[in-house]
Amino acid sequence: MALVKVDNLSRVFDVSKPWLNRVLERREKEYLTAVSEVSFDVAERSTYALVGESGSGKSTIGKMLVGLLSPSDGHVEIEGIDLANEPDAAKVDAVRADIQMIFQDPYASLNPRWRVKDIIVEPVASRGGKTEGMAEKLLEQVGLSVKDAGKFPHEFSGGQRQRICIARALASEPRLIVCDEPTSALDVSVQAQVLNLMSDLKENFGLTYVFISHDLTVVRHMADVIGVLYLGRLVEEAVPGRLFDDPKHPYTQMLLEAAPKMDAFGREIQPPEGEIPDPINPPPGCAFHPRCPLAQDICKRDRPRLRQIGGTRVACHFAE
Amino acid sequence: MAEPVLSIRDLSVEIPTRHGIVKPVDGVSYDIRAGEILGVVGESGAGKSMAGNAVIGLLSPPAHIASGEIWLNGKRIDQLRGEAMRRLRGKEIGMVFQDPLTSLNPLLRIGDQLVETMRTHLKISEKEAEKRAVAALEEVGIPGAASRVNSYPHEFSGGMRQRVVIALALCAEPSLVIADEPTTALDVSVQAQIIALLKRLCRERGTAVMLITHDMGVIAEATDRVAVMYAGRLAELGAVEQVLTRPQHPYTHGLMASTPLASEGKARLHQIPGAMPRLDAVPDGCAFNPRCPRATEVCRTPPPPRVKDGMAACWHPLVEDVEEKVS
């Protein structure tokens, strides 16, 4: 069963200049479309990865999943409840307790004035739950020591801080954890430790992850299903084996080709042309057409819908 | 064999602190030849940037070169100070930093920045410098270079800014470029463009490059030789293919195995237990010994092993195993 259902989700930000400037400079209002008509399901106890370059809207989707941002259009349903529109506050509250988030920067996401044990139990304490001995138990589960409970965040390294963030996320016994670039700030060897920990916890607690990353190698290792985003649009979705062996969308193909490879000594690649376009004035039709080798007239006119080809969902007129 | 462009001999950098002296760079030696890209790889705190800063004389006090020699094109440069060092920077050594926005002056048009750099180091007229600025921007692949010279840094995207920085680093035709994490702040597709650009320009001009990065994928793709650093020391030095596919040092081996790229569908990644030691608590003997599965008594007693002719700085390098099995 799908734990998370994302249906036609869009988010638009108003990035206009202040009213007086608009009047004086005769400017129109400006809108930035960060996420545009994205739909996907996340099955319970699976890891769904959102991958894309900067500005692809992956973090915005993550924030809408946990309710830190409200959708401009479309719905996010978790456990069948639409958090943004559900009138029954008790139901919303119950679902909220099942969602947690892990952020990218473990230096910014821990309160420096709180002791680790207070940080970890806060999700439970804020709801008036019993927290006795909880921090110590969680610290052991994430591979830290019971003695660390009384320390402050500055006494820990980046990897250890991320473990504290994970312990905090586990405190309320959530079903869904949204991880926004959880290992991007960490060194490779520490990243391996944290990723292994996350895999173990998923097994032990039956967790569902939405895993947001720009790193294809990490995504390939962690995900059960991968969604590739480009300029706020979902362009391809498939299981890792399929996506990496047989990418359908020209953008996915370009991304895989451009990613550094371990065995490509002295490889001479033709690097991809161009950069991600301006999301305030996205190109009409398919957002990728200005950089796409396959682009035809139809790509400039019509925005391709997601189509099912084999086990892959792909948004391209010419994918086959 | 041609004389190396840069030659570092037994370089140590020290920082005096209240709790004693720490050594962020400890006894490091390597050469870079013309047209060669040497990758310097390591985790944060391994001393890779510190070594680069020592070469270009950008160590911020109290950090200082405690011992060792740095030779650039046959001249010893580690004792240069002030004006002499300033003339070297930009002219003989170009520098590309991680964040292109902070390495450009936001108040000057990029053309003016290029002209200023060239006129400081080369004896050319204003007109000539302007012409060369446009040519330099064209060479790094900035579309519409003739009009873009009049733009300010904020008008460029991240990837384009990094191209401008590369144009700046190369405009005085230095013999050595130090690129410190040049693609870390960039997206994958832009990273591929920047790496291809660096490789092309250095091959065409025969510039030596020190490419400092933490990304093994970038190392594999861009470099000819690689130096692996751990806790301020050189763990392994060699041809990139050999070091990455047949690492001799247990640390290099662990590092390679822990990248998800190398995991190929395995459920768990290889883990190196523990973390890199703090610089004020580097263990006796080999710095890696507390985390090393092969450590024995000799590894725990000083002096630490050093890198020599294609051999890793290790008392029990992994290559022995292979030979034993073969024989």
TrEMBL record, chain B:
<keyword id="KW-1003">Cell membrane</keyword>
<dbReference type="GO" id="GO:0055085">
    <property type="term" value="P:transmembrane transport"/>
</dbReference>
<dbReference type="GO" id="GO:0005886">
    <property type="term" value="C:plasma membrane"/>
</dbReference>
<dbReference type="InterPro" id="IPR003593">
    <property type="entry name" value="AAA+_ATPase"/>
</dbReference>
<protein>
    <submittedName>
        <fullName>Peptide/nickel transport system ATP-binding protein</fullName>
    </submittedName>
</protein>
<dbReference type="InterPro" id="IPR017871">
    <property type="entry name" value="ABC_transporter-like_CS"/>
</dbReference>
<comment type="similarity">
    <text>Belongs to the ABC transporter superfamily.</text>
</comment>
<dbReference type="GO" id="GO:0016887">
    <property type="term" value="F:ATP hydrolysis activity"/>
</dbReference>
<keyword id="KW-0813">Transport</keyword>
<dbReference type="InterPro" id="IPR013563">
    <property type="entry name" value="Oligopep_ABC_C"/>
</dbReference>
<dbReference type="Pfam" id="PF08352">
    <property type="entry name" value="oligo_HPY"/>
</dbReference>
<keyword id="KW-0547">Nucleotide-binding</keyword>
<dbReference type="InterPro" id="IPR003439">
    <property type="entry name" value="ABC_transporter-like_ATP-bd"/>
</dbReference>
<dbReference type="GO" id="GO:0005524">
    <property type="term" value="F:ATP binding"/>
</dbReference>
<feature type="domain" description="ABC transporter">
    <location>
        <begin position="6"/>
        <end position="256"/>
    </location>
</feature>
<keyword id="KW-0472">Membrane</keyword>
<keyword id="KW-0067">ATP-binding</keyword>
<dbReference type="InterPro" id="IPR027417">
    <property type="entry name" value="P-loop_NTPase"/>
</dbReference>
<dbReference type="Pfam" id="PF00005">
    <property type="entry name" value="ABC_tran"/>
</dbReference>
<dbReference type="InterPro" id="IPR050388">
    <property type="entry name" value="ABC_Ni/Peptide_Import"/>
</dbReference>
<dbReference type="GO" id="GO:0015833">
    <property type="term" value="P:peptide transport"/>
</dbReference>
